[in-house]
Amino acid sequence: ELLGVNLYELIKKNNFQGFSLALIRRFAHALLRCLQMLHREKIIHCDLKPENILLSQRGPGNIKVVDFGSSCYEQQRVYTYIQSRFYRSPEVILGHPYSMAIDMWSLGCILAELYTGYPLFPGESEVEQIACIMEVLGTPPNDFVQSASRRKLFFDSKGNPRNITNSKGKKRKPDSVEMSAALKTNDPLFLDFIQRCLAWDPAKRMTPDEGLQHQWILEGNFNKLRSRTKPT
């Protein structure tokens, strides 16, 4: 099948202006259906990012997920160094065992970027990546930090985040940016959808099945659209 540009190229072609929530909802629905299929087979993609999502020629909102080079079965995890940094889940950064929930984290980051035109958590390093996440989500639960094998890289002995200044001289303070400000939207359903993708605790993160039943997705009436386009 001939595939079109990837989502990063699409964002770039649009001068990093971001897209309408209606179009993003179509992408989200297609990605959730893809993740639903992977999750049923207990497969983790491990590198979901805009560059690995290509537009299909079948019409607007139709996409294909590519590059399964890092993917694995949930019970046969191969690598510890996975996911591109901007889309890397906190459990991977901190050295926790990871699950299919890491793909939902990446999905939340991707949808946010499609809306604003820029990565939600643009860390220059893993230490700044966690700082970017904490800036919006606040500090992680204490037990999540204490049970992490790589915690000493990011937190001191008392569990406080290590201070970091990036190359532009910027320091990021935990819980200093509201999600609505980071996303530049007050749409309550979109905000709720993203926040459910970005729960610190992977066990509390939304699953693809739950995502497809979320009110923000249901407002797209995709089931009606699908039944309308089925051949008679």
UniProtKB/TrEMBL annotation:
One GO MF term attached to the UniProt entry: ATP binding
UniProt superkingdom: Eukaryota
GO cellular component: cytoplasm; cytoskeleton; nucleus
Keywords, comma-separated and alphabetical: ATP-binding, Kinase, Nucleotide-binding, Serine/threonine-protein kinase, Transferase
Keyword Kinase attached: yes
Pfam families, per database record: Pkinase
Domain Protein kinase: 1-217
Record InterPro entries: Kinase-like_dom_sf (IPR011009), Prot_kinase_dom (IPR000719), Ser/Thr_kinase_AS (IPR008271), Ser_Thr_dual-spec_kinase (IPR050494)
Keyword Translocase: no
Similarity-based family: Belongs to the protein kinase superfamily. CMGC Ser/Thr protein kinase family. MNB/DYRK subfamily.
Name recorded for this polypeptide: DYRK4
Primary gene name: DYRK4
